[in-house]
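Exam revision sheet. Question 4 asks you to relate a sequence to its structure. Input first:
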Amino acid sequence: MGIFSNIITIDGPAGSGKSSAARLLAKTLGYLYLDTGALYRAVGWTALKEHSNVQDEAALKALCAKLDLTVKPDGDGMRVYVNGQDITGEIRTPEVSRAAAAVAVVPAVRQRLLGIQREIGKKAGAQRGVVVEGRDIGTVVFPDAPIKFFLEALPEVRVQRRHLELRQQGLTVDLSSTRQEIDTRDLKDSSREISPLKPAADATRIDSTALTLEGVVSTMVRAIEQKRSGSAG
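Answer key, C-alpha cells:
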C-alpha cells in the first residue's frame, strides 16, 4: 500500500467530535494532523474578505486559481495561511462556517482543494503518517487508505458540543442559532451532488454520543491494532 498505509481518515458531521478525536489520535500515534474543513473555511474567509459571491462558481474558480493556501503543524493542531497571512483564528466564526458550507458545494472549489489535500496527505504519509479529518476523506480524497473511521452522535449532543466550542472561542451565540447552523450544514453536506457526506463502505463507524474523547480515541486505537494485526497475518 505504500504511503497509504500511513494515512488514517476520519469523517463525520459537525459536532460529532472528529476534530478533537483526530488531533488526539494523531498525537497518540505520533502522526501529523490535517483538518481539511479548515481549507474550505479558508476559501470561505477569502471570499468574504474579497466580497465574492459564495455561490458564483466562476468567481470562486478565479479566486481559487490565485489562492496561495498552506498549512503548517502547530503542536497537536495546525495553522492555516492564505497568501502568507495566518488566519487560523479568523476562520472559526459562524459567518465563516456558513461561507465554508456554501463554497463546499461548488465543484471548482472541491476540485482545487482535492489536489491540495492529496498533496499534503501523501507528503505527510510518506514521512511519518497523518490523520486526515473531514467529510469526504475516506470516500473521495483517500479512498485507498486502509484505516477509515466515521464518527456520529445524536443531533442534540452535536448541537451542545458546537455551542460549547463557540463559547470557548469567546463568541456570543445562542443555542437556537447553533442548532440552525448544524441543521443547515447537515442538509448541505448530505444533499450536495458532489462528494456528499456518507460513511465509506469499509469505514469503522463510532457513535460518540455517550463516549468521552479518550473513549473515542481508545476505540480507534483498538480498531487500528486489530486492522494491522489482521493485515500482518
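Marking note for examiners. The longest strand covers residues 69-74.
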